[in-house]
Write a structure and sequence with these properties.
The structure is a single chain. The chain is an alpha+beta fold. It is built from seven helices and ten strands. It has three domains: 2-28; 32-217, Helix Hairpins (Orthogonal Bundle); 259-425, Glucose Permease (Domain IIA), CATH 2.70.70. Helix content is 56%, strand content 12%. Strands 1, 2, 3, 4, 5, 6, 7, 8, 9 and 10 form a ten-stranded antiparallel beta sheet that branches. A hairpin with a 4-residue loop joins β5 and β6 (348-358). The longest helix is centred in the middle third of the chain and has 74 residues, at 150-223.
Length: 431
């Protein structure tokens, strides 16, 4: 009796031990599950950041539409810096998420590779079985003739059919697994490339934030935080803006008359990539209402693409960078500010102006869609945007495209000028 009770106690305690051990194993999470949980958390964080970004953009837009005062300008700087910091946070979290997704894909690739190896082993075994039974040279009639009974013949024939069917299935599954593996590799490489882009954007936006803080401090130092001094500065800037715009328009007007239409490519809105895909058209080409009110020449030689400061700018097509510059060194807040000029092989040249930062140099060969800089509000800009001008390349010379040894408008140093065309003939943008 005692022995019986002792056995029951052992079984009871051993059973509890097993339930605890296996219960823990059942409730423990796998690395893949933990990764997915972390990825979901980063996704939630990004959604939260994007919500804050929309609110920051709304606040900045409202501030920019208010009357220009020193206090309001300081507020614009603060809102811009806040927006950029949110973008930096977005980049940081996105990099973390991409890293987790790459790690998760590595697990998927390992599992698929294991399945591929197992499937190859299974196929090899089937091939050995076929060879052993000389099935490759057999047919159903031969199978029945060799069999002692009809039942044996039916069973052997069915076995032959089953093996061949299994071989077909395994080969198809192996093909599917190989396709999945290739797809996962492409996905992984895409995420690695996106990670590098995010890291570059992160570094650039940190630099832009530093620039905005410096501009804000310079403004406060120059005005001594007095509204009257700021308004005097504004008056001087308006006068310089009008003078520079008139000088540029006069040179462009003369060069427009030199355009030979036969040397231009056919008009096609797909000729160029929209250099700021996330942007909206905020001012068109030619005698726009803004140009009629604010430019002495009454002409806008390009289009304006409005987007938050720090948004990426891409090359509209393959080409060579023939000029970069910063007109704020010569005429602060009056010219193109920081700009890039790219000559393409189709008879057209593009100018990208008011950048906060450019990341290319003269002589660089660029590809369609390659990052060349970031949206800003340098030069004559009432808000963050990219000004895009399309020149007829035939009207450009090194001097006219703004090389240092070239002709210089007296008010704004080396300036890109040429015979301008309506960009909307060659690029499609959101309105």
């Amino acid at each position: 009796m005692r022995i019986y009770i002792s056995v029951l106690l052992v079984i009871f305690f051993f059973g509890n031990f097993l339930s605890v051990v296996f219960g823990q194993e059942a409730t423990s999470t796998s690395p893949q599950t933990e990764l997915q949980s972390k990825i979901q958390e980063r996704t939630r964080q990004l959604e939260e950041i994007n919500g804050k970004l929309k609110e920051a953009e709304k606040n900045l837009s409202e501030t920019q539409n208010q009357r220009q005062t020193l206090q309001n300008q300081v507020k614009i700087y603060q809102n811009t810096i806040n927006q950029l910091n949110l973008n930096i946070n977005n980049d940081n979290v996105s990099i973390q998420k991409l890293s987790l997704e790459v790690e998760s894909l590595n697990y998927d690739l390992r599992d698929i590779q294991e399945s591929i190896d197992n499937k190859k082993i299974a196929i090899n075994k089937l091939l050995v079985e076929i060879q052993k039974n000389d099935y490759e040279n057999s047919n159903l009639l031969a199978v029945f003739l060799k069999s002692k009974t009809l039942a044996d013949g039916v069973m052997e024939a069915q076995s032959l059919v089953n093996i061949r069917s299994q071989l077909d299935d395994d080969i198809q599954n192996l093909s599917t697994l190989s396709e999945q593996y290739t797809s996962k590799i492409q996905d992984k490489n895409g995420k690695i490339s996106e990670t590098e882009i995010r890291k570059n954007n992160l570094s650039a936006r940190k630099s832009i934030v530093a620039g905005q803080k410096e501009e804000q401090q310079t403004l406060l130092t120059q005005t001594r935080e007095r509204e009257s001094v700021y308004q005097k500065q504004l008056s001087d800037i308006y006068a310089l803006q009008e003078k520079v715009a008139a000088e540029i328009e006069e040179m462009d007007r003369q060069l427009r008359q030199n355009i030979d239409p036969s040397l231009l490519p056919p008009t096609d809105p797909n000729t160029f990539l929209n250099p700021v895909p996330a942007a909206y058209l905020t001012q068109g080409y030619g005698s726009t209402s803004f140009a009629l009110r604010n430019y002495r020449g009454k002409w806008h030689n390009g289009i304006d693409l409005g987007a938050p400061l720090g948004t990426e700018i891409f090359a509209a097509a393959d080409g060579v960078v023939i000029n970069v510059g910063n007109q704020d060194k010569f005429c602060p807040k009056a010219g193109y500010g920081k700009f890039v000029v790219i000559k393409h092989n189709n008879g057209l040249t593009t100018l990208y102006a008011h950048m906060s930062l450019y990341v290319v140099s003269i002589g660089d060969k660029v590809s369609r869609g390659q990052l060349i800089g970031y949206v800003g509000r340098t030069g004559y800009a009432t808000g963050p945007h990219t000004h895009l001008t399309v020149f007829a390349s035939q009207t450009l010379t090194p001097a006219r495209s703004g090389y240092p040894e070239g002709a210089k408008p007296s008010s704004c140093g080396p300036t890109p000028v040429g015979g301008d065309l309506n960009p909307l003939l060659y690029v499609s943008v959101r309105k």
